[in-house]
Specification:
The structure is a homodimer of 266-residue chains. Chain A is mainly β. Helix content of chain A is 14%, strand content 39%. Chain A is built from five helices and 14 strands. In chain A, strands 1, 2, 3, 4, 5, 6, 8, 9, 10, 11, 12, 13 and 14 form a 13-stranded antiparallel sheet that branches. In chain A, a hairpin with a 5-residue loop joins strand 1 and strand 2. Chain A is globular. At the A-B interface, strand 3, strand 5, strand 6, strand 7 and strand 10 of A face strand 3, strand 5, strand 6, strand 7 and strand 10 of B.
Chain lengths: 266, 266
């Protein structure tokens, strides 16, 4: 089984909650990679018997560090109509006092797509293919970095103009057919452009992450394990919090847009 | 009292919930203007005794049409630490069966700003001032439209290139000092660029709205009733759902960025 699918495995409990394990395969420095936690939220909704449509929007708020070991997903259907469905989700982990701590809260909107006029307004990036580019490697202890084949078209922090988007190619390693949870996790592979502004890595942490999905399950399945191009930038770094916005392309197909608010220290 | 402050008035109940009235002053076609409902969510959090810091991020999901009359805000503090605070909110309205319907669910992140390096990456728009521009009027029955002095720099649907951002000036009418709830409501004044693509108004409805705040309360207070410049665009219109992203500027100060997923019919 692919490490991504292993990471997202959850078992239903009698009370309807889902139980999973924080993935070591996607471990970051002090907890799991944020993208895998966000993907878990999408997956927990997709596993609900009442779910309709396709993932349309996710907002995942990183409430506290996720610790090693078990977590529980508490998923609530707030409202459902013919076209959209609104879910709320908490990821819980046991605390030393015998209770549960919320470590993530998220909202997922499901939507039923329809055969109406569609169009693209953003311009697809014209960049060299991934073949000739060097794969970026992280330090050995950062497990999640080995789960993605990341190839930067623009250097993530040595750039002439730090206001230009940072562009990278990305694909699961090993390659894996795309779906909405995978796209969610990939939406967190962007390097914060504050590194380019400050000329190196500074401490950052995602506070809130937003993903808008612009493709159906069938379209993703047809793409298979397609290379994606990411274009990411920030608008502002202000008194300890910055924003980030990014697009994910499969060729000239815009598959997702994503936004973050991050905490930073300088 | 300013109609905006009247619209946001809520009374605490014994169980901690807040009770308010859907504002007629900000009425849209079949319910209140989405921006006033989103602003209500921010205000309901700001009224909580345990609140710390400044609004950092709001995601408001429009779960069902808000009806005339009373609503109740149920606000939950999911987690608090030294730097951030995570809130969840439901707006409820009574249904004919004697129960409550969720009409909005939202998450608000509060953050404590710090005196660290700050910077701007986005470029402020260089546009003519609002003085020489004609105010855009809506049909008389659309009350919320009279609550904003909206002056378009680019025509909202007759444009040469519908992929270019739509730029407008906006201010509360009557003018009112800025704060985070006001900024939230203003973040919903953008005209969807699908009107430009389709050459006229088509039915749209916001499904999810995101606001990232890039200024403190003190900075907003110093700005007073400043004119804001909005730059809004869409990336994609796909099978019944579109995205929108926008920036709000006070001169060369980026005060907020905002994103939406909207349902559309064509």
């Amino acid at each position: 089984m692919h490490p991504f699918d292993l990471a997202l495995q959850m078992q239903p409990r009698a009370d309807g909650r889902l139980v999973g394990q924080a993935s070591r395969d996607y471990w970051n420095v002090v907890g799991p990679y944020g993208g895998i936690t966000a993907a878990t939220a999408v997956q927990a909704v997709l596993l609900q018997p009442a779910v309709i449509g396709e993932p349309l929007a996710l907002t995942a708020n990183f409430v506290a560090p996720v610790r090693p070991g078990e977590f529980t997903a508490q998923v609530t259907l707030e409202r459902s109509n013919r076209t959209t469905q609104h879910w709320h989700l908490r990821l819980l982990q046991p605390n030393p006092d015998g209770g549960d701590d919320v470590v993530l809260q998220a909202m997922v909107v499901m939507g039923v797509r329809r055969d109406v006029w569609s169009g693209l307004s953003a311009r697809a990036p014209q960049v060299e293919g991934p073949e000739g580019l060097k794969r970026r490697r992280g330090r050995d202890q950062i497990a999640w970095f080995s789960r993605y084949d990341l190839r930067f078209v623009t250097h993530p922090f040595k750039v002439e103009n730090p206001d230009e988007p940072i562009v990278h190619w990305v694909r699961d390693d090993p390659p894996r057919p795309l779906d909405h949870p995978a796209l969610t996790a990939i939406a967190d592979t962007f390097f914060p452009s504050i590194f380019a502004h400050r000329g190196g890595v500074v401490p950052v942490a995602t506070v809130s992450m937003n993903v808008y999905f612009h493709c159906s399950r069938a379209e993703l399945t047809a793409l298979g394990a397609h290379w994606l191009i990411g274009e990411g930038r920030s608008n502002v770094f202000h008194e300890g919090f910055l924003d980030a916005e990014a697009r994910l392309w499969a060729g000239d197909r815009l598959v997702a847009t994503t936004h973050q608010v991050m905490w930073y220290r300088d």
